[in-house]
Amino acid sequence: MSGGRGSASVAGRLSREQMAAVIARRLEAGWIVNLGIGIPTLASSFLDPRGGILLTSENGVVGYGALATGDGVDPDVVNAGVQPVTLEPGAAIVDHAASFALIRAGRLDCTVLGAYEVAADGSFANWSVSGDHALGGIGGAMDLAAGARRLWVVMEHTTNAGAPRLVDRCSLPVTAGPGCVSLVVTDLAVIEVAGAGLVLREHAPGVDPERIRALTGAPLALHRDLAPISL
């Protein structure tokens, strides 16, 4: 997802790769995981191939690994963002019907998506029909949001204009309603979405939590064990 520096520029923001690494470290052994287009797909390169995490993609790749480079690139083996990926032992290529059957059957332990906005109640928006946003149509996000046991979002904390992406209420078309998103990783923070609202669990190293609060468009509680993000 594009996001911003703009008038809300803050030193110490995480790079896209660092955000992906933060997400990767939170995925647990034994999980079946879907990584959405954009920053989420980068997380596959930060997973231990022996870690017991099975990655799936809506286009029908089951059991892929890190992004492929050099001689390892096969244009027919790509993730949801059409980036070439490697295949892990035992991987399978299935059709779209089988891929979405896996999603709709509730087999996914976690899906990680990009978003334009996440609201304090756990609803989120990751598509738009407006020319102001790049994603266009909704794709498989509704299926993923409805079918996964956990939905995490990774996005930049503010827009290019410096406006908050974490808000009281989504202004864009909602992909999924209240209670859907449970964790948000941004370039400034790791935030839990709980019944009472947003809770700051970790902050980018060197970034004042009060600065993060000022860039968040909804009340943001500080967790009692608040700590810097480990990079």
Question: Could you walk me through the main structural features you see in this protein, from its secondary elements to its overall organization?
Answer:
It is a single chain. The protein has 231 residues and is of the alpha/beta class. 16% of the residues lie in helices and 28% in strands. It is built from 5 helices and 13 strands. The protein has helices at 16-26, 39-42, 96-104, 141-147, 209-214; strands at residues 32-35, 54-56, 61-67, 85-93, 110-113, 117-119, 124-125, 151-154, 166-167, 181-185, 189-194, 197-203, 220-228. The strands form 2 sheets. The chain has a 10-stranded mixed beta sheet with strand order 4-3-2-1-5-8-10-11-12-13. Strands 7-6-9 form a 3-stranded mixed beta sheet, with no helix packed on it. Strand 2 and strand 3 (61-67) form a beta hairpin. The two termini are 21 Å apart. Mean pLDDT is 91; it is low at 1-7.
Estimated helix fraction = 10-25%
Hey, roughly how much beta strand do the residues contain? 25-35%
List the quaternary state of the chains: single chain
Kindly report the average pLDDT value.
91
Helix and strand layout, with pairings?
Layout: H1 16-26, E1 32-35, H2 39-42, E2 54-56, E3 61-67, E4 85-93, H3 96-104, E5 110-113, E6 117-119, E7 124-125, H4 141-147, E8 151-154, E9 166-167, E10 181-185, E11 189-194, E12 197-203, H5 209-214, E13 220-228
Parallel strand pairs: 1-2, 1-5, 5-8, 6-9, 8-10, 12-13
Antiparallel strand pairs: 2-3, 3-4, 6-7, 10-11, 11-12
